[in-house]
TrEMBL record, chain A:
Keywords: Initiation factor, Protein biosynthesis, Repeat, Translation regulation, WD repeat. Pfam families: eIF2A. Residues 542-552 have a biased composition (Basic and acidic residues). This is Eukaryotic translation initiation factor 2A. It comes from Anaeramoeba flamelloides. Residues 433-569, 617-638 are annotated as: Disordered.
UniProtKB/TrEMBL annotation, chain B:
It comes from Anaeramoeba flamelloides. This is 40S ribosomal protein S9-2-LIKE. The lineage of its organism: Eukaryota, Metamonada, Anaeramoebidae, Anaeramoeba. The keyword Ribosomal protein applies. Residues 3-103 form the Small ribosomal subunit protein uS4 N-terminal domain. Belongs to the universal ribosomal protein uS4 family.
Length: 649, 187
């Protein structure tokens, strides 16, 4: 039994339901309204018509009840079981005259108003939170959080938690306990504190942390409330790097104690967005300057996967945690990447440039993008796609106020099962489309220019030099390198471009730190571009081509090896491969013998040998002459070092 | 037991150069340092590292010494957070600057993680024993923070900001207020 998926949109005057998968209007389901809000279940909608709040049952699309309002509400919220409703209005002179409060709590069935309270701050929302059972209500005052019993509101608060300067609070149910989170801002010297308490015991906090540099700290819980993310933001950045202030991310983890462990996630650049996976305890952060990095952190707050792709600034997860969409709207060019989180591959790229609202449907089959009047006065409308990128519905309006899918609790819809093969094929098609685009781009740019015939056969890299003059190859001069070849053949000394440090005598224009500036007296230590007559390591008697080939081969190998190697994990083969065959055998023999003996004794012997070598090195630095035997000894030092390193493991 | 000693800084060759003096003053202000010596100290460590990198680059690419010591040098620098993970080559070592080193001091890390109001406040907190890296209390503002321990910087469990008992002055005031209340009640 699968429920129908509903999509709603609301213009200036009308409010409509649409049903998937065809997205046609349902008859007899239009209401007049300007704003609306869903309950958390998705069972009810509250639609605001001037001075009337109409509550509608989404399954029937029939009217449930109406509430009479005195002023336009700024915020509308349902309670978790849909029995109560909160409205918050901006405090104005009307409220003063009639001495009425801002915050009102209503009963949805009867439509009666239960309580009206005055609360001044609009930047600090939420100010009233229900518990999941609907037994308790938590209200914010200037200096305390007060808990009321919902059945007898007029009596007064049952319990209170006093704290000066509360700016933020949250009230959440985790397993069997109720957790209260408070953030209070202190003065300059004291710092601002964030604390978490278990419901009735307000004496001992389960978590507390003081930070000096934060003006606001808000908490974001994971799906089972065992982990949380704190984002602390300061309005002013004292270093002057950022105009909007700085933010920091911290990670909380609940341990078997009951207490929370605190850890800095470690991001120093601007954070664009971060969100929890609705099914697992992992989260994804987008940070940095464009193109931003998008990194997945796991259970223990360690990064384990990095997404590639273009510049995006927001993300949205599907409700079963199987799909992630990165969007780049706002001040960016646009574009949506859809990734599948089971196989970590990109499925699709949507080339959309406008969008202010976006999201997944609750059975994760559809993804919608809508342009809304608040943000843009032009191009209002919405588009609905499937997960693999097909356009299903596209409609435009003059004025569109809001558009979204109807939410639902987890577990109402069966999880979508997609084969690995379909995802792989989607990945392949995406990559093919990417390549096509690049080729098309270059063709489009050059279509207006005159391309001479000798250039037409080239690839994109070569033909991307549009600003440069195009010359016929006959007129391009070749650089002559005859002199060097002659020298090499004759003398075979190899002037070689050695990095000869040579005592570039003075002429060394080196920006040498030395006194050598200009006249370069003395040792112009110039890292001289100086004609240091260095001991350049030339390659006499060889041709240029052979030298180049050798260098290329060596460089390739070394780069691969250098990139793969790490000091701790350097395997034996790679170490051996740098010696010729005549040495390899000796080394292997030595290693086998050393394995048989006692390792500590062997280490001691080797250390003695290294001491001798160090003594020889000192002689060398003092410019004393050494035998050939002594020179070979010095070369054996790395072998001994590697042995010690190997045996210690 | 004799303790091994060596110099850690080197004074500049010319004492009065306007550019150099301005630059050093800016660095001191940006990172909250105490004396010019702390700047020269970092210059010296950088110089030593650059020297060894230069030496290794003169060797052949196959040379075992170059491989061995080069890899060790790169590993040390990446563990301290000075060198990027993607720049694992000796040529990149020669492009390092002083700011890379000074960013890894405990003083700047405490300020950037939000525990302190300003850089100077961070130095005060460190010296007054409020800050610990993991479980180890660190008293030294020029402690070089490694990448692994960067996440574990926080107030130590014994400091009043981190859950310990309040400081000496606060305790004294509480006692005085306690006495005052008693006096008033008696009256």
């Amino acid at each position: 039994m699968s429920k129908p998926i509903l999509f709603t949109h609301c213009t200036d005057q009308e409010f409509n339901f649409l049903e998937a998968p065809s997205f046609t209007k349902l008859e007899s389901s239009t209401y007049s309204g300007q704003k609306y809000k869903f309950s958390k279940d998705g069972k009810f909608v509250a639609i605001y018509d001037p001075l009337n709040l109409v509550i509608v049952n989404t399954q029937n699309q029939k009217r449930h009840s109406t509430l009479k309002m005195y002023h336009t509400p700024y915020v509308i919220e349902f309670s978790p079981k849909n029995n109560y409703l909160i409205t918050f209005e901006l405090y104005s002179s009307k409220h003063k005259k009639e001495s009425m409060g801002n915050l009102a709590i209503w009963d949805t069935k009867s439509g009666k108003e239960l309580i009206r309270i005055q609360s001044y701050q609009k930047e600090i929302w939420p100010q009233a939170i229900f518990s999941q059972d609907e037994t308790l209500l938590a209200l914010l005052n200037q200096s305390s959080v007060a808990f009321y019993n919902l059945k007898c509101l007029n009596i007064g608060p049952i319990k209170k938690k006093n704290q000066k300067g509360i700016r933020n609070f949250d009230f959440v149910q985790a397993d069997n306990e109720l957790l209260l989170y408070i953030f209070s801002k202190g003065g300059k010297t004291v710092g601002s504190t964030a604390e978490i308490f278990v419901y009735p015991e307000f004496g001992t906090p389960v978590f507390s942390q003081t930070l000096m540099n934060s003006d606001k700290m808000s908490i974001y819980w994971s799906f089972n409330k065992r982990c949380a993310l704190l984002s602390s933001s300061s309005d002013i950045d004292m270093t002057g790097n950022r105009y909007y202030g700085s933010t920091n991310l911290y990670w909380l983890n609940r341990q078997s104690n009951g207490k929370f462990k605190f850890q800095n996630v470690g991001i120093t650049e601007t954070i664009h967005s971060f969100k929890w996976n609705p099914v697992k305890n992992e989260f994804c952060v987008i940070y940095g300057s464009m193109p931003a990095k998008k990194i997945l952190y796991d259970d223990l707050c360690e990064p384990y996967f990095e997404f590639g792709g273009g510049s995006r600034n927001d993300q949205s997860w599907s409700s079963d945690g199987k799909f992630l969409a990165f969007t780049g709207f706002g001040n960016l060019n646009g574009g949506v990447d859809i990734w599948s989180m089971e196989h970590y591959k990109q499925i699709k790229f949507l080339d959309e440039s406008f969008g202010s609202q976006y999201g997944w449907s609750e059975d994760s089959k559809f993804f919608y993008i809508a342009v809304v009047r608040e943000k843009l006065k032009v191009d209002n409308g919405y588009k609905i796609f499937t997960t693999f990128g097909k356009l299903v519905k596209h409609k435009q309006f003059d004025v569109l106020v809001d558009a979204r899918f109807c939410p639902a609790i987890k577990g109402t819809f069966e999880p979508v099962e997609i084969d690995e093969e379909t995802i792989k094929t989607a990945n392949r098609t995406y990559q093919q489309e990417k390549k096509k685009k690049e080729l098309n781009k270059n063709n489009e740019q050059n279509s207006n220019l005159f391309i001479p015939s000798f250039k037409k056969g080239r690839t994109t890299q070569q033909s991307s030099s549009i600003g440069k003059k195009e010359r016929h190859p006959m007129f391009i001069k070749k650089k002559k390198k005859l002199k060097v070849e002659q020298v090499k053949k004759e003398k075979g000394r190899g002037r070689g471009r050695g990095r000869g440090r040579g005592r570039g005598r003075g002429r060394g224009r080196g920006r040498g730190r030395g006194r050598g500036r200009g006249r370069g007296r003395g040792r112009g230590r110039g890292r001289g571009r100086g004609r240091g007559r260095g001991r350049g390591r030339g390659n006499g008697n060889k041709n240029e081509k052979e030298i180049q080939k050798e260098n290329e081969n060596n460089n390739q190998k070394n780069r691969q090896n250098l990139n793969n190697m790490s000091f701790d994990g350097m395997p034996n083969k790679e170490f051996l491969s740098y010696f010729g065959n005549y040495k390899q055998d000796e080394i292997i023999k030595m290693q086998k013998e050393n394995d048989k003996k006692d390792p500590q004794k062997v280490i001691r012997n080797l250390k003695k040998k290294i001491k001798e070598i160090n003594a020889l090195k000192k002689k060398k630095s003092n410019k004393q002459k050494l035998n050939n035997a002594q020179k070979t000894k010095i070369k054996q030092e790395p072998i001994y070092k590697y042995e010690i390193h190997r045996l210690k493991k | 037991m004799s303790r091994r000693k060596s110099k850690t800084f080197k004074t500049p060759r010319r004492p009065y150069q306007k550019e150099r003096l301005d630059h050093e003053l800016k660095v001191v202000g940006k990172y909250g340092l105490r004396t010019k010596r702390e700047v020269w100290r970092v210059h010296y460590t950088l110089a030593k590292i650059r020297k060894s990198a230069r030496n290794l680059l003169t060797l052949e690419e196959n040379d075992p010494r170059r491989i061995f010591e080069g890899a060790a040098l790169l590993r040390r620098l990446t563990n301290l957070g000075i060198l990027d993970e993607q720049k694992q080559r000796l040529e990149y070592v020669l492009t390092l600057t002083i700011d890379d080193f000074l960013d890894r001091r405990l003083q700047t890390q405490v300020y950037k993680s939000g525990l302190a109001r300003s850089i100077h406040h961070a130095r005060v907190l460190i010296k007054q024993r409020h800050i610990s890296v993991g479980s180890q209390l660190v008293n030294v503002p020029s402690f070089m923070v490694k990448i692994e321990s960067q996440k574990h910087i926080g107030f130590s469990s014994k400091s009043p900001f981190g859950g310990g008992r309040p400081g000496r002055l606060k305790r004294k005031l509480n006692v005085m207020r306690g006495n005052k209340n008693e006096d008033q009640e008696e009256d």
